[in-house]
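Record type: ASSEMBLY
Status: queued
Input:
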Amino acid sequence: MERGIKECCGLNIKSVSFAELFLNKTMLIAYVLLAVGLIGWFELFGLRFGHEFVNTTDLVEAGGNHAAVMAEALKEQIFHMHHIEEVPREEPWGIFVAQYTYLLYGGSALIVLVALAELAGLHIAHKASAALMTLGISLALGGMISIASDWGNPINIYWMILNPQPQSGMWMMLPLYAIYIPFTFIEIYFLMTNKRELAKKLALPLVVIGLGIDMAEFYIQGILFQLNEARHLWVDFPTLWIYFLITGALSGVAFAMIYSGLALKDKSWSAELNETLKKAAMVLIVLVGIYEAVAGFGKIGEAPFTTMFWGYIIVGLVLPLGLLAVNQNFLAGILIAIGTFAARELFVYGGNAEPMTNRFGMGPEAFSTYNVAELKNAIYTAPHTMEVMVIIACVGVGIAIFKLLDTLLDVSNQPH
Amino acid sequence: MANYAMALEYQNCIDCRACEVACKDENGVMIGADKQRIWVGVVEGGKTLADMFVNFYPSQCNHCVDAPCVTVCPTGASHFVEGGIVKVDYDMCIICKGCMEACPYEARFVDETKHAVDKCTFCDGRIQEFGTTACSATCPTKVRTFGDIDDENSDIRKRLDGREFFVLKENEDTMPKLFYLAPEDKELQKRTMGEGIKLHTWDKFEKKYKTETAKRREEWKEA
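Status: finished
Output:
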């Protein structure tokens, strides 16, 4: 065994100094992103818990005390100042949910692709599986930080255990992730363990079960959005879980291409990995393109989301396809990552756009018949700066988790 | 057990907003809040001076029989209580805002003073003592009639009998419990209501309503 490596439970764990673990170049980048997020979180929690919101009872009880605070709170509320409004009624879900779906679906779908590559027995899978699965789960955890930031009162989450609601798609996330996250780490463990005989025996069942869990995740995510019956862009969207899977896979491949370009270019198997990622990206771009053309968001092409939609199509699909054709994987990866984030924004904000028509006594019509002239709530509201800062930090969380695991377990050098 | 609902003679509404003031006072709604708990919708129509009209239609939570907000809630904070009233347990709410997304009527909001999602509760604390909600008690033109829809002798049933009414967003199949009374004058009805609104009468609507209510009645908890 190499010097500086200790074996624990069949894993080779590198013995590294504090500085090597926490003060390397990648971690410093993660710290910068996290520092940006800290400002955002500070503002966010200040608004939620440190701000004075008053009702008539508060005013009566305060009497003459705290007059200045009450007067300020009254002024803000009466003049309806938007900086105190964290949750616009017309758009209850915003950029936090967009970031959650972006990182989580991207990370999970990357894990799906790696599992499929393992199942198909691709040669490159033996080289890169551990690294890419670790990247996938790290980014998925970053996405979870985003949704945790979105919840205004996450401390009450224990009620999900005390008072189970299995009919709720959102509740289903709890048992799902309780299985999904540990299981993914078990998969990674068996990709890297020294107990090769055991790993070989369990490889196939693990991959098959893993794929099943991944598919269940996307299916439940589809249900989660489709339960919002009033939101026609989500409900009328055909087979939402397939849309999540293919767009998530595209994001996941983009993350892998960026990671490969930054950290794996010196590996002997780098060219083979890049070629595989390129083919996967091209196939996924075509699949997403077909979905959008046949059944997708093209239907809201005339709504106020036009810019975002076409931005996503051009930046996320068209340009990268051209770049991949000339083997510019890294640049294509960056563009796909940007474009697919725009797709998630579009999905969340477009879905929020209800009621798009508010005619007297009428229900909302199917989204294909929305009258653009009558759109009221569909106008895009830019996210608050603090929200943008927090979602930047979520990427930092993903990078930090990955780098810590990579430093300790050397996941990027784990051929099996 | 009572089954509370509300009939709205919206043609009587003069948009004085006394109902909103009464609601804020009764329920401690945040000062300056816009469209919280109850509100008055305004729809103008007509193309010429001869056919111009304005509809004021007061609205609030519809306390749907098959409430999607209750279905999607991951913690059970949104729930039914006696009378079929949909309520939020503030101590269980994680403010995931799933209920706000699921509600077809945009009836829910985040109440920053309670630090939870909130909505109209049909003044459930008040109705035990006074028999009606603050908004209906205050209305100078008697737009709202609140009561037990299962009781044939209740005011609301008497109001609905023989009248045509509609519910908002019927296609959502949530079975809302705000019944908007259509104008009795057919010409006015045709001119001001637009096309596509399904009108009902209680004798024909009751069966479907009771069937749907029975499906979720066992979820009603003690207030």
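Annotation: The first strand of chain A starts at residue 5 and ends at 8.
Annotation: Chain A has 15 helices and two strands.
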